[in-house]
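Hi L.,

As promised, HAD hydrolase subfamily IA:
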Amino acid sequence: EFMVQKLGIEEDKVVELNQLLYRKYGTSMAGLKAIGYEFDNDEYHSYVHGRLPYENLKPDPVLKNLLLSLPFRKLVFSNGDDVHVMKALKRLGIEDCFERIISFETLNPKTNEAEVSCVTGHLSESPVICKPTEIAFEKAFGIAQLNPHKTLFFDDSIRNIQTGKVMGLHTVLVGKSRKVDGSDYALEGIHNMKEALPELWLESNSNNEKSKRISYAAQLSIATSVEA
C-alpha cells in the first residue's frame, strides 16, 4: 500500500518488487532507498507498522520468566523502528527484560543520514543499514560494547543467522527444528530455550565445569526480526 499510495508504483508490480527488494537488501525499505526512492523514514514506519495487528500479540509470562532468570546481559537487535519494537515488547510483557534496544534509529541516526546526503549528493549503494549486512552487526557490536565471540544470537531469519555466524556470534535459529548452515542451535520455539541450553541457567557462583561450558556466553544477545 505504501509503495502504491505514497511512491506511485504500479499496483501489479509491487508484490514482486517488494519480494525482490527484501531478499536483496534485508528490508523493503532499504531496497526502496537503494534504488532511488526518497521518502521520510518516520512516515514509512508509521504507515507500514501502523497497520500491523499488534492485538494478536499476547502477554507471554513463560518467556518473561525465562529471560529474567538468565544471568547475562540481554539486548534486542531489530530492523524495526523504536515505536514498533516497543509496541511488540509491551504486548508480550517483556519490555523490562532487556538492557537496551538496537533498532533502526540506532543504526540510522538522522544526523548521519543528513550528513551523508550533503557530502555525497547522491544515494549510496546501501543508504539504510540493517540486518543481514555485516556493517549492521559491526555497528551493533560497537554500540553495545559486546564481544561477538562471547555472545549468543537468536533470530528467526536464516540470512541474519548466517551473517551473525560469519561475524563471530554463536547462533540460535528460532522457528526451525533442524539446524542450517550457519546455525549452532535450532529451536522450534523460543520456549524450548532452557531445554536446549540448560548450561545458561547454571548458578553463576558454582565451582563445577559450568564456567567452561558457558564461557562463550558471557553476554547474551536476543534479536527480533521485522519484515517491513
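The chain is about 45% helix and 10% strand.

Thanks again for sending the construct details.

K.
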